[in-house]
Amino acid sequence: MELRELRSFLVVAEEENMTRAAEKLHLTQPTLSKQIKALETELGQKLFVRQGFGIALTEEGRLLRERAEGLVAMADKVKEEFTALDNITGGVLHFGLAESFQIKYLAREIARLRESCPQVTYHVDSGTTRQVLDKLDAGIMDFVVLAELPDRTRYEFVKFPDHERWGVVMAKSAALAKKKVVTPADLKGLPLFCSDQSWAHDIPRWAGRAMSGLTREASFGLAYNGAIFAREGLGYLLAFDNIVNTGPGSGLVFRPLEPPLHTDLYFTWRRGRALTPIAERFRRQVCEAFGG
């Protein structure tokens, strides 16, 4: 199995059309078909089936896509790292970020770095803690920002300057919007929106025994989407302050939780892993700026 074949497979999976994929890869259709056939023969599985005017992945094809995306990303990362070994003023940085207003501090440090190293480029991804840590562990990402304390045996980290204040984002017309703060008793029986991670860890820490009276209507990985549902009166979003627009004209309001609930953010990297020169330079810069 060659990386070239995996790259071709991923393009075909994205386009769901052999002709368009061949054009995108600058290959003839017979050549591309031959590569896909070689993969199917090597794996002993059918990867695509005809569907309407295109093709679709089989169950085996979806499994290969999941594995191939990681392999190709890792290969690209290795190439980037070795290309940058002798270049301390350029290179590529890969970040996995949690949603937070404090990301502004990281953005400022990236801007500072690019003032002295204009050749630096960067990629930003987002996801749950498990998703970004998997990519950090695999070496696909250089740094991740976590909204929970990292495992000190596996990761090193520095805390962001501020902390996140939890509250409820709701429609301006909601009855709870008249209150200055929201208690666990206020939320009893109401349809709540919250991420899986926060519902399992942060909210129980706040609600205590009252947790049994809280009902999660839906899980949202992105607060923005949850806020749209809240604005339409479908429920109440438990989220950090300043993560969605609750200003005039938004149709939304934010009310802090009582008792107060706060979460710290951590700039995190893999313990014991060698960083590229530019990544190490950025790590030192962030630690100095954040007081780590």
From TrEMBL:
Keywords: DNA-binding, Transcription, Transcription regulation. It holds the Pfam family LysR_substrate. The keyword Transcription regulation applies. CDD domains: PBP2_LTTR_substrate. InterPro entries: LysR_HTH_N (IPR000847), LysR_subst-bd (IPR005119), WH-like_DNA-bd_sf (IPR036388), WH_DNA-bd_sf (IPR036390). SUPFAM superfamilies: Periplasmic binding protein-like II (SSF53850), Winged helix' DNA-binding domain (SSF46785). Residues 1-58 form the HTH lysR-type domain. It comes from the Bacteria. Belongs to the LysR transcriptional regulatory family. This is LysR family transcriptional regulator.
